[in-house]
Amino acid sequence: MSKKRDLFEGVFELYRDQIYSYLVQSVGRVDAEDLVQEVFIKVFKNINKFNRAKSEAAWIYTIARNTLYDFLRKKKSKGNYEVCVDDYVVENTVGESKDLDESIAVRNAANKLKKDRREVIVLHYFQGLSYEEISRIIKSPINTVKSRISRAKSDLKELLK
Amino acid sequence: MRSFDSKLSNVKSFQLSKEAVSRVENAIDLVEIFGWVYLASKYIWSLVTLVSFGYLISEIINSVNYEAWTVFWQNKSVLVNNMFSFIPALFEGVPLSAVAVFIGCLSLSIISITAGKLTFNRINHE
Fold first, then answer.
1. Do A92 and B23 touch (CB under 8 A)?
2. Residues in chain B within 8 Å Cβ distance of A11
3. Average pLDDT score over residue span A45-51
4. What angle separates helix A131-138 from helix A142-160, to the nearest 10 degrees?
5. pLDDT above 60 (res A80)
């Protein structure tokens, strides 16, 4: 196996579920599976630019985000596109099923947030990225990220009441 | 009572199905193989075109009409008006086969590289 392929396999193993979870939140299971493939093909083609010294998560999430937005732009030009994170992903959910209903409720509520607020909530809380990583991904200052998260949390609290 | 932050952080993630994982791996195999084929064909065609260009240049040097060129350089201002009728005279003696080989190689190279690139992009999207 080539060195490039070895590096890719490691990255794929580590990030496939994270990227899938990130995409499912916005497009649902079927489209997310297709997009995961598209994202990782881009990752594979650009793996030589991959720099472990910088945040690898930010790099991969940036690719995933750009792929997602391209997809949503194409879909929206064909009509409305709304996603509900529903039971169809329950069987593929990681961890115990104890808090599953709550998780689905939170994810569905997050989908009702404004796009920029939803994005930071998803990246920070659901995907576990740091403020700095999010700031790199969305190309905004860290303080903007923090204030967006704070506003998004307030909105989410209201929605979950 | 759990804080709101931990409630958000404990949201469950999803797992990519085994079928989807193997689909991605197969797609990467295909991209990898096609990547090599595309790269090899790009280099081979570039080399073939370069060789045919070298052949054309050597044929021009060997058989070009030097007299016509001398006339051309000495009477540029006069000849500039009927340049188009004069150009064939400059290349008189250059074998058409060398020109044809070069144009053929260049065209095939452009067609094959473009087709390869389009197919590569198509594979990526499918």
1. no
2. none
3. 80
4. 100
5. no
Q: Give the predicted TM-score (pTM) of the model.
A: 0.73
B16 interface with A at CB cutoff 8 Å: yes
Contact B17 A33 (CB under 8 A): yes
Helix count (H) and strand count (E) of chain A?
A: 7, 0
Task: Quote the CA–CA distance of B38 and B44 in Å, as a whole number.
Answer: 10
Residues from chain B that touch A64, judged by Cβ atoms under 8 A, are: none
**Phi, psi at A98, each rounded to 5°:** -55, -50
| Min Cα–Cα distance to chain B from A3, Å | 12
Q: Do A92 and B24 touch (CB under 8 A)?
A: no
Rounded Cα distance, A86 and A104, in Å: 7
Looking at A111-141, list the stretches that DSSP marks H as alpha helix, in order from N- to C-terminal side: 115-121, 131-138
| Strands of chain A, DSSP E | none
pLDDT in tens, A95-153: 555 567 778 888 888 888 888 899 999 999 988 899 999 999 999 999 999 999 999 99
Mean predicted lDDT score pLDDT of chain B: 81
pLDDT tens-place string over residues B54-105:
988 888 888 777 777 777 777 766 666 666 666 676 677 778 888 888 899 8
Select from B17, B114, B115 the least CA-distant residue to A32.
B17
Say what the pLDDT of residue A47 is. Answer: 86
Of all residues in chain A, the one with the smallest CA distance to B23 is A37
Start-to-end C-alpha separation, chain A: 53
Pick A100's closest partner by Cβ from B12, B23, B24. B12
| CB-based contact A37 B27, cutoff 8 Å | yes
